[in-house]
């Protein structure tokens, strides 16, 4: 897949760190403001899709390989499951909010809410990694001739 | 009552496109429109006339929050449904691209006639 | 409240254009207008979480559809399937709207949700004890990750399975194993 003209390449190189930071912000403060894990993950995937469309696949594979995207996806799912199993260990049931019962933080603070910020970040990386891998496969398959 | 009927008309447009069109891309678009209509219907059920979004702010007490907030339960279910819809669209487009590579066309009457 | 109906009518008109337009690119762009109109009406319906999710997911859907299916080999296919199917679908639509209008009287009016009509709903419990028991002011995220976290686990599994299916279909090594096509 070839990239686009130099104007598009320059602008996306400057804008994409802000998009990535916005995606991580929406996922991280999902328990305080609207948002959460799922929109944050889709925005993170959107940043890498933008880079791949503008620069071509070789440059993006230098930063974020397909193999490392798959590994990120699987590791994030496993950490979600581990947080659930830790709820068994500390009493309560599966997926119990054990941090909130043990150490409640300041109300309206960033670390309040128990294990909700941790699960939000895990879901964000999971959704972002999956959608990036699926887009890479779809765009590189190209059964239809390019214009 | 009229607003629920508008969501049903959107669903009916999607269903018409799935049944009646010959292009595979139009069938995929019909399924997408049906999903959008069902999500909109679920949120329309939880609407309250003079209500606020279900997010607690700093100065509110709990009783006035309960009396003036929208229903949060359909909203939680719809967020899940929207993201699952995206995964299903990716799967459908992968199927369509494979079919085009094998048969050379997106027309389903042609695909039905040829035998692999 | 009239604004919600106006944006829903805009969405219906965009959906009609998306279904009937002959060129593939214009129908896909109209699909983007459908998602955008729905997102604005979600804002007026008091659901900011869902408006953010709908806009972003609509953008990714558009990019996937355009990138994978538009090219110079794709011709436009006009026309419907067949006449009897069209008449059958119109009869189905009539029957369906008759059933729907019959059962619509059991719903509460538009504008009064279940929290007003019934006294002991789960939503009242979540709104009242969300901040105490779960610790976050965003009640929707509380429900997704603390009160009903099992559904979120199921959703992550479904997304994983769908993406796995899509990747397996597009993997050249699996399908073109030895000796090229077929």
What does this structure look like?
Chain A has one domain (6-146). Chain A has 6 helices and no strands. Chain A has helices at residues 6-28, 37-55, 57-63, 66-89, 98-102, 116-141. Chain B has one domain: Helix Hairpins (Orthogonal Bundle), CATH 1.10.287. Chain B contains 5 helices and no strands. In chain B, α1 (2-20) packs antiparallel against α2 and α2 (24-45) packs antiparallel against α4. Chain B starts with a helix and ends with a helix. The relative contact order of chain B is 0.13. In chain C, 74% of the residues lie in helices and 0% in strands. The termini of chain C are far apart. Mean pLDDT of chain C is 84; it is low at 177-182. Chains in contact: A-B, A-C, B-C. Chains B and C meet through α1, α2, α3 and α4 of B and α1, α2, α3, α4 and α5 of C.
- Give me the secondary-structure category of chain C: mainly alpha
Please count the beta strands of chain C (DSSP E, at least 2 residues each): 0
Note the run of SSEs of chain A as H and E.
Answer: HHHHHH
Query: How many DSSP-defined strands of chain A?
Result: 0
What share of the residues of chain C does DSSP label as strand, in percent? under 5%
- Identify the overall geometry of chain A: elongated
| Helix and strand composition category of chain A | mainly alpha
Overall domain count of chain C:
2
- How many angstroms separate the termini of chain C? 57 Å
Number of helices of chain A: 6
Mean pLDDT of chain A, nearest integer? 87
Mean pLDDT of chain C: 84
End-to-end separation of chain A: 12 Å
Shape of chain C: extended
Helix content percent band of chain C: over 70%
Low-confidence stretches of chain C: 177-182
For the CA atoms, what is the radius of gyration of chain C? 22 Å
> Largest interface: which pair?
B-C, 80 and 86 residues
The ordered string of helix (H) and strand (E) elements of chain C is: HHHHHHHHH
């Amino acid at each position: 897949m070839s990239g686009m003209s130099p104007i598009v390449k320059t602008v996306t190189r400057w804008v994409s760190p802000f998009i990535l930071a916005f995606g991580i912000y929406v996922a991280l403060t999902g328990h305080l403001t609207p948002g959460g894990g799922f929109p944050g993950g889709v925005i993170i995937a959107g940043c890498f899709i933008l880079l791949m469309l503008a620069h071509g696949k070789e440059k993006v594979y230098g930063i974020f390989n397909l193999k490392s995207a798959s590994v990120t996806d699987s590791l994030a799912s496993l950490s979600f499951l581990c947080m659930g199993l830790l709820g068994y260990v500390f009493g309560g049931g599966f997926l119990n909010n054990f941090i909130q019962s043990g150490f409640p933080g300041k109300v309206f603070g960033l670390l309040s809410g128990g294990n909700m910020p941790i699960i939000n970040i895990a879901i964000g990386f999971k959704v972002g990694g999956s959608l990036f891998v699926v887009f890479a496969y779809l765009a590189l398959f190209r059964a239809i001739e390019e214009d | 009552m009229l607003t629920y009927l508008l969501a049903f008309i959107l669903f009916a447009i999607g269903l018409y496109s799935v049944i009646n069109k010959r292009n595979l891309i139009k069938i995929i678009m019909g399924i997408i429109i049906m999903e959008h209509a069902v999500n909109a219907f679920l949120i329309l059920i939880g609407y309250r006339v003079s209500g606020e979004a279900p997010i607690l702010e700093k100065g509110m007490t709990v009783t006035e929050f309960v009396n003036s907030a929208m229903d949060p339960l359909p909203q939680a279910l719809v967020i899940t449904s929207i993201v699952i819809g995206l995964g299903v669209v990716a799967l459908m487009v992968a199927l369509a691209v494979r079919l085009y590579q094998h048969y050379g066309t997106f027309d389903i009457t042609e695909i039905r006639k040829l035998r692999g | 409240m009239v604004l919600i109906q106006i944006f829903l009518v805009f969405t219906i008109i965009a959906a009609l254009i998306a279904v009937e337009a002959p060129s593939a690119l214009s129908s896909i762009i109209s699909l983007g207008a459908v998602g955008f109109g729905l997102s604005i009406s979600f804002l007026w319906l008091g659901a900011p979480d869902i408006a953010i999710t709908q806009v972003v997911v609509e953008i990714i859907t558009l990019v996937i559809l355009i990138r994978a299916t538009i090219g110079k080999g794709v011709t436009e296919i006009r026309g419907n399937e067949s006449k009897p199917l069209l008449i059958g679908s119109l009869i189905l639509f009539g029957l369906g709207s008759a059933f729907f209008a019959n059962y619509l009287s059991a719903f509460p009016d538009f504008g009064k949700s279940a929290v007003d009509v019934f006294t002991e709903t789960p939503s009242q419990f979540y709104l009242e004890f969300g901040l105490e028991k779960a610790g976050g002011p965003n009640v929707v995220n509380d429900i997704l990750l603390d009160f009903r976290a099992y559904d979120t686990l199921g959703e992550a599994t479904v997304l994983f399975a769908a993406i796995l299916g899509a990747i397996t279909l597009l993997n050249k090594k699996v399908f073109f194993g030895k000796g090229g096509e077929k």
